[in-house]
């Protein structure tokens, strides 16, 4: 296929016809005629592959790196295991055999293909023919098309049109798009679990922008609160309405650190084409990988591989929501400002009393799927007008979360005092490491000396070069906070060498303040 004929992989609101493959300009009947003419020019597996393509054109499609798909009237559904494609190949061979009477060459061709390996060979060849194959990037390529149960919705103009195989869409919502649809049950539920209408509106805008198949907001909301507060019912109801576009991922996805980049990555592979992905609730705290968080909330291409498949590369189409009782750990070493610019803590503070809980509520809300989808579309409309616009409650909870996860901030608050001449980076860093050990913070999560100094600078304690070293003026370790078994490092004047230290028995453990007090030119205030 020429460069001019290739379909764009992404567009911001382009007309649907711009995504149509050039083959759409040729009727299916004409394409089948061409394939049948080509079939007569070949023998055995190649001939059978052309016959197969002529028979199943527009019904089966091979997607490179993923496998066979079949058109089910609404979307190109994945043919997992390839069972439909194999059955179709055998049906084609059966039809060819019916035409082989008196044609020895055709009979020979059919016999050559009528084995398990022969069928695989036919499918392999057919999957490379014009009209029967597509790149993974060609599927679900228009981020502003949402395939609904009752048609394909253009999210720009909210125009609903019939399903079309040329759109190359592999997902479909469970809900139908019904303009104006409302559910009193859904609205009452949201008012109960989120009495702050600003937070409710924020959640609607977030789920609304999640309908778009591209990353418009580089954020990672975390719905948090103790149990029995409705957050689980809320996200399961949304995912039910979204159907194929929604999914639940294992929270371990955020902890992945792979040593082999070519290893299978089914968790990442499953993100392809999703619009809303929820990281399910956990019973215990997990430690987020900042690098993975940036990767999954950014807009950079994702390279992933399913088991026994070739790797594919795709642009992220999903928005993330973590739902958890316990906020995940983000140690200072990994949680830089770029991470906290993405994290949003959404508080679910209401606890539903046992006598007010309805065990059938999730089932009832499934019947409101159409209204929930329409609610999300309305949220998208509000997003176009004002953006996400985080409410005060979300901003405050996020700030509390960030401060609680900032190891250096906690160290300063618990182990230091302000005023006075200030301690050197060395003294402060040694105290910080001892405090981390006492707090159970692993060494891999502790900041090195340079990063620690930078973190203090962000807290308005920059370092200044003095004779005794780099000093953070106005920040001192509490005298009772630290004991060390080695003397603090003291910078010597230029050209002066350290004096030889005679061998002696180990000194008893002393306070670092005793050592500093004995240093010349230092006065404790």
UniProtKB/TrEMBL annotation:
The keyword Membrane does not apply. One of its GO terms (molecular function) is helicase activity. Keywords: ATP-binding, Helicase, Hydrolase, Nucleotide-binding. Residues 184-361 form the SF3 helicase domain. Transmembrane segments: none annotated. Residues 502-512 have a biased composition (Polar residues). Pfam families: D5_N, DUF5906. Residues 1-22, 491-512 are annotated as: Disordered. InterPro entries: Helicase_put_C_phage/plasmid (IPR006500), Helicase_SF3_DNA-vir (IPR014015), NrS-1_pol-like_helicase (IPR045455), ORF904-like_C (IPR051620), P-loop_NTPase (IPR027417), Phage/plasmid_primase_P4_C (IPR014818). PANTHER family: ATP BINDING PROTEIN-RELATED, SF3 HELICASE DOMAIN-CONTAINING PROTEIN. This is Putative DNA primase/helicase. It comes from Naumannella halotolerans.
């Amino acid at each position: 296929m020429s460069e001019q004929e290739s379909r764009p992989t992404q567009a911001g609101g382009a007309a649907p016809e711009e995504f149509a493959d050039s083959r759409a300009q040729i009727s299916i009947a004409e394409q089948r005629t061409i394939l049948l003419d080509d079939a007569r020019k070949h023998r055995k597996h190649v001939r059978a592959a052309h016959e197969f393509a002529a028979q199943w054109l527009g019904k089966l499609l091979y997607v490179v790196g993923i496998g066979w798909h079949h058109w089910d009237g609404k979307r190109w559904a994945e043919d997992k295991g390839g069972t439909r494609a194999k059955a179709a190949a055998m049906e084609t061979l059966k039809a060819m055999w019916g035409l082989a009477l008196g044609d020895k060459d055709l009979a020979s061709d059919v016999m050559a293909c009528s084995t398990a390996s022969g069928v695989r060979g036919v499918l392999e060849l057919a999957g490379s023919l014009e009209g029967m194959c597509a790149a993974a990037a060609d599927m679900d390529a228009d981020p502003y098309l949402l395939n609904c149960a009752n048609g394909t919705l253009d999210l720009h103009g909210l125009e609903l049109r019939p399903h079309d195989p040329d759109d190359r869409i592999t997902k479909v919502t469970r809900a139908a798009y019904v303009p104006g649809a409302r559910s009193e049950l859904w609205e009452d539920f949201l008012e109960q679990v989120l009495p702050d209408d600003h937070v409710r509106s924020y959640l609607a805008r977030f789920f609304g922008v999640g309908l778009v198949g591209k990353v418009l907001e580089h954020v990672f909301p975390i719905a948090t609160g103790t149990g029995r507060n409705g957050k689980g019912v809320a996200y399961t109801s949304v995912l039910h309405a979204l159907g194929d576009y929604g999914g639940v991922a294992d929270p371990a996805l955020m902890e992945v650190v792979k040593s082999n980049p070519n290893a299978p990555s089914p968790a990442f592979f499953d993100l392809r084409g999703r619009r809303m992905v929820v990281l399910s609730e956990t019973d215990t705290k997990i430690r987020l990988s900042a690098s993975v968080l940036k990767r999954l909330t950014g807009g950079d291409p994702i390279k992933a591989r399913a088991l026994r498949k070739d790797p594919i590369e795709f642009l992220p189409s999903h928005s993330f929501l973590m739902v958890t009782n316990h906020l995940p750990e983000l140690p200072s070493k990994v949680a830089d400002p770029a991470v906290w610019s993405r994290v949003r803590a959404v508080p679910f503070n209401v606890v539903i009393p046992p006598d007010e809980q309805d065990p059938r509520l999730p089932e009832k809300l499934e019947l409101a799927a159409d209204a929930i989808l329409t609610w999300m579309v309305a949220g998208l409309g509000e997003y176009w007008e004002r953006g996400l616009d985080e409410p005060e409650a979300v901003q405050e909870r996020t700030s509390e979360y960030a401060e609680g996860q900032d190891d250096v901030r906690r160290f300063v608050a618990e182990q230091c005092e302000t005023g006075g001449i200030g301690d050197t980076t060395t003294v402060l860093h040694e105290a910080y490491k001892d405090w981390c050990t006492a707090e159970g913070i692993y060494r891999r999560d502790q900041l090195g000396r340079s990063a620690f100094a930078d973190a203090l600078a962000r807290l308005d304690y920059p370092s200044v070069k003095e004779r005794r070293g780099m000093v953070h003026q106005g920040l001192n370790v509490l005298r009772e906070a630290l004991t060390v078994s080695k003397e603090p490092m003291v910078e010597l004047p230029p050209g002066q060498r350290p004096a030889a230290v005679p061998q002696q028995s180990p000194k008893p453990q002393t306070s670092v303040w005793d050592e500093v007090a004995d240093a010349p030119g230092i006065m404790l205030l």
